[in-house]
Amino acid sequence: MCLLCFSVVLFECILSGIMSVKGKKVLHMDRNSYYGAESASITPLEDLYKRFSLPGKPPESMGRGRDWSVDLIPKFLMANGQLVRMLLITQVTRYLDFKVIEGSFVYKKGAIYKVPVTETEALASSLMGIFEKRRFRNFLIFVANYDLNDPKTMEGVDPNKSTMRDLYKKFSLGQDVMDFTGHALALYRTDDYLDQPCINTINRIKLYSESLARYGKSPYLYPLYGLGELPQGFARLSAIYGGTYMLNKPIEEIVMENGKVVGVKSEGEIARCKQLICDPSYIMDRVSKVGQVVRIICVMSHPIKNTGDVNSCQIIIPQIQVNRKHDIYVCMISSAHNVAAQGKYVAIASSVVETNDPEKELKPALDLLEPIEQKFVSISDQYAPTDMGKDSQIFISRTYDATTHFETTCDDIKDIYERAMGTEFDFAEMERTKNDIFGDDFCGQLPHQLKK
């Protein structure tokens, strides 16, 4: 068995849990005193003020500091998505409680609209005119019925040769419909997908629709008490299978021999290993900067206007609507999720930095949130590995992107797993491993953890 050392954000916590189940011997080291590193939930509120170097203490109107648990990098889980499948297969769900996000919205010409994803919603939506509603409805029916094993459902659309631009043209869908379909349903970050094979977008829309069907209000879930619960859950899982987790362990040196990692030095001692998985901050000479992300955490005493006063939601502002190259994301949670004082709301706006004034770039999102009681602004560099680990056996994750869902995170997890293990991440194989451990009668559902 290998000894793997992990120095960690949520990526590495998930991988350590999965690999512990797979029989790997895992040592998990973190320089921080808390779980999750940059994906942590900060509590109490006083610590958030200190982290962002704000003077003074939170005003009394913010309530008790210990009632707050604010995500530094907030993201939602797709109810039928990859991370939920990982949670179910590894049984980490037993450590977590979830709540359904109450709404999913898209921005158009300064206003927000509910994302239509069913035939009924398409016909009722004010996003489109009457004729386009029917064309979009026919498009949704086509996507829902599309089956690679049944040529009759394809209607002459080649999944690998027909582009998404071709498919939109087939149904005579205009620019506005293309915007919310590609960015709010398929969750693409740019318009590059338009000239790629349409099967990728069809599958993404199916995932959104299937996730919505699980619980009805939106396709998204969120853990009570914040995302910091996720790395803790996977750390517990790793411990059950013999993994060791060490907080407050400074990483002094990555020990190499003949170009290959052999250990990690901490406080004068060396922990020997055959493989190392870490985030970019631990080994900057093997990564390259690929951009920046701006995030603004906003504390409010009201829900976002024109959302039906929901306690939680996501809003996607497609790039073309605000003359940008990248989408702007907004997610809102509240005291209903045990992350804020009673009657308070936390909204986070994020996007890829494109100018020398990142905060101004998020103005369309901030205008939707007014009035804002307090803002916490961060600009983070994004890194990608230049060393894929084949020779060094060091496997480095990518920095979190600006999206408000975990699908891109899970893609990175699977990529690292494949590089480290030499085989693709196979959900079916993981399911078989789970059944060997827990028995075939394990119930792979979330209802008992879902809070109303």
From TrEMBL:
It is found in: Cytoplasm; Golgi apparatus, trans-Golgi network; Membrane. One of its GO terms (cellular component) is Golgi apparatus. Regulates the GDP/GTP exchange reaction of most RAB proteins by inhibiting the dissociation of GDP from them, and the subsequent binding of GTP. GDP-dissociation inhibitor preventing the GDP to GTP exchange of most Rab proteins. By keeping these small GTPases in their inactive GDP-bound form regulates intracellular membrane trafficking. Negatively regulates protein transport to the cilium and ciliogenesis through the inhibition of RAB8A. Belongs to the Rab GDI family. Its main location: cytoplasm. Keywords: Acetylation, Cytoplasm, Golgi apparatus, GTPase activation, Membrane, Phosphoprotein, Signal. The keyword Membrane applies. Interacts with RHOH. Interacts with the GDP-bound inactive forms of RAB3A, RAB3B, RAB3C, RAB5A, RAB5B, RAB5C, RAB8A, RAB8B, RAB10, RAB12, RAB35, and RAB43; binds RAB3D to a lesser extent. Interacts with DZIP1; this interaction negatively regulates the interaction of GDI2 with GDP-bound RAB8A. It is a peripheral membrane protein. GO terms for molecular function: GTPase activator activity; Rab GDP-dissociation inhibitor activity. Gene3D superfamilies: FAD/NAD(P)-binding domain, Guanine Nucleotide Dissociation Inhibitor, domain 1, Guanine Nucleotide Dissociation Inhibitor, domain 2. This is Rab GDP dissociation inhibitor. GO terms for biological process: protein transport; small GTPase-mediated signal transduction; vesicle-mediated transport. It comes from Salmo trutta. Residues 1-23 form the signal peptide. PANTHER family: RAB GDP DISSOCIATION INHIBITOR BETA, RAB GDP-DISSOCIATION INHIBITOR. The gene is LOC115197644.
